[in-house]
Amino acid sequence: MKEMITLKVNKEVHEVLVEPRKTLLDVIRDDLGLTGAKKACDLGNCGSCTILMDGKPVVSCLILAVDAQGKEILTIEGLADGENLHPIQQAFIDHNAFQCGYCTAGMILTAKALLNRNPSPTKDEIREALSGNLCRCTGYDQIIEAIQAVAQSR
Question: Considering the entire predicted model, what is its pTM?
Fold first, then answer.
């Protein structure tokens, strides 16, 4: 039996009719049409589906949509200010911190949460924060450089 839920995603309120077992990732992608969070492992291991919920990075493939009611949800689509990229997004471009792009949204949102709680993280703190986000292409050096550049520019 489907139930009506209300979600606040990227500062917009959405009412969605969902199956109680439907994940937040599936609602974000299928019902709201926001495809920045990727569906990859469905086990919470890769971080490709990372979003921010109440400012904290979470893997949306493991959260039921019904459990996200009353939470502030931010996806990569809500990070930029209109045509102006967020500084972290721009730093990823400037430092070539992506290749295939599959993990990029999750990495950027995880970096945002890190910099919000720790404006000057060390390399080790950055590595620790990103430990739930897997990248098979870049080797992480450019990602860490991008995050450090944003931290230094503040």
Answer: 0.95
- Cβ contact 5:18 at 8 Å: yes
CATH of domain 3-78: 3.10.20.30
- CA angle, residues 53, 92, 85, in degrees to nearest 5: 70
Mean pLDDT per 10-residue segment, the chain (154 residues)? 97 97 98 97 94 98 97 98 96 94 95 98 98 89 97 93
In angstroms, rounded to a whole number, what is the distance separating the alpha carbons of residues 145 and 33?
Answer: 31
Place of tokens 């080797």: 139
Helix axes 104-117, 141-153, angle to 10 degrees: 40
Q: At what angle do helices 87-94 and 141-153 cross, to 10 degrees?
A: 130
Q: Specify the DSSP class assigned to residue 3.
A: E
CB proximity list for 149: less than 8 A, separation 6 or greater: 91, 94, 95
Is the separation of the CB atoms in 144 and 122 below 8 Å?
no
Q: 87-153, what's its fold?
A: DNA polymerase; domain 1 (1.10.150)
Domain ranges of the chain: 3-78, 87-153
Q: Return the closest-CA partner of residue 92 out of 78, 75, 106, 74.
A: 106
